[in-house]
Write a structure and sequence with these properties.
413 residues, five-stranded mixed β-sheet, mainly beta, Neuraminidase, globular
Amino acid sequence: MSNPRATPTTTTGPARPGARLRWGTVILAGVLALGTAGCSGDDDSATTTTKPAESTTAAASTSTDGGNEPGTGAYKLTEVATLAEPLMILARPGDDDLWAAERTGVIRRLTIEENGTLTPDGEPVLDISAETSTDMERGLLGMAFSNDGGTLYVSHTDLEGTSQVMAYEVSEGDDGPTVDPDEPTVLLTQEQPFANHNGGHLLVDRQGRLWFGLGDGGAGDDPDNNAQNPDTLLGKLLRIDLSGKENHEVVAMGLRNPWRFAIDPQDQVMWIADVGQNAIEEVNRTPLAELDGANFGWSGYEGPEPYLEGDDRRPDDPVMPVFSYRHDGQPGGCSITGGVVYRGTAMADLDGAYLVSDFCAGWVHALIAQDDGTVRDVDLGLEAPQAASFGTDAKGNVYVLSLDGTVWRIDPA
C-alpha cells in the first residue's frame, strides 16, 4: 500500500465551520482544523529562494563498539507482531498489556508473551472502522490515555473526511479493561479542505493535558496559508479543551504536517517531527517552558531554508530545526517519521535520545541532544521498511511500526 501520509489531492474542500480557540489566554474567532503527516513532493511548482540557512545538525556517529557513551551501542530489530497497518502502540496506565491502533479504525489489546512477542487479546476493544475513512492519508491516526487510564482519547477521520478527537470511558471488567463505544465525548471536530496533512497525533503530559498536532490542511505549499494564520487550528500544535466546548489552546504554529511528537519526561522538552514539502525533512526540539507562541516557520521556511516569500508567510523569528536532511542527501528519504524519547534501561547509551525514521528510506536514527543546543545524529544501523510510527511499553522498550503490518522491538545486539 502507498504511504497514507504522502499522496496529494487537488480537490477543493468544504467550507469550514466557525469555532473558538485560544492563543495562550487570548480568545480568537477561528476555525477548527486537523491534519495527518503528509509526505513531501505534493507540488514541485513553488518558487524557492537560493539563500540557505545554516543547519544545526551535527555529524553522525558511526561507532558500534558498545559501552555507555551516548550512541555507541549496537542494535537489532526483533519482529514481535503482525497487525493491519499499525499506527500506534502504547501502554495504558495500570494495564500490563499494550494497546495498538490500526489505521482502519480498530484498537486491540496485545499481551506481551514471555518470549517478548505480542499477541492480540481476543476481540478488538474498540472498532470504529465503519465510521472511519481510510483513503489518501486518512484513518485512525492517534491514540492516548489519561494518566489514570480511565479515558481513551482517539483521533480519526470520519466518513466525510472530517477530523475528530473523541474521548471514550475505559472500565475494568472481569476479562480486563473494556471501552464503551456508544457514548464518546466529542472533543474536537474539524472539516478538512484536502485529504492529506491531517496530523492526528495525541499525547497526554504528566499534568494530564491533552496535546494534538494538526497539519496545514493539505494539498501542496499550504495554498490557504493556514500554518501562519492565527485564526485557524490548521498547521498548529494544540492543547485540547477536555470539557467538550472546543475552546482549544493554540500553543505553537508554522507546522506543515507534524507526524509524531514526544515530550521527554525527564527534561520536559518537546520533540516534533515535521514532514517537508519537496526537499527537506525536519525535527524540532523546544523546552516546554519556551514552546508557547513558537513559530516553526512553514511555509516561509522548509526545514532551515527560506521557502515561499511574503510577509504573511515568513515569520520574523522562526524556530529553526535541530535536525534536518535533504531528500537528495544523507541519510536521504522522503518523509520523516517521529518518534519517541528513549528512557528505558536496556540501551543505556541511548538514554534521552529521540528515535526517528523515514517512511521511504527505512533507516532508524537516534538524535542525541548536546550541551550547546544542537543534536548529534546517530545511525543505529537498522532498516525498517515503511516505518510509520514508534511506540513504547511500560518498561520503556521501543517498537517500530511498519505500514506493511510488521512490528519490531529495538533491542541491544
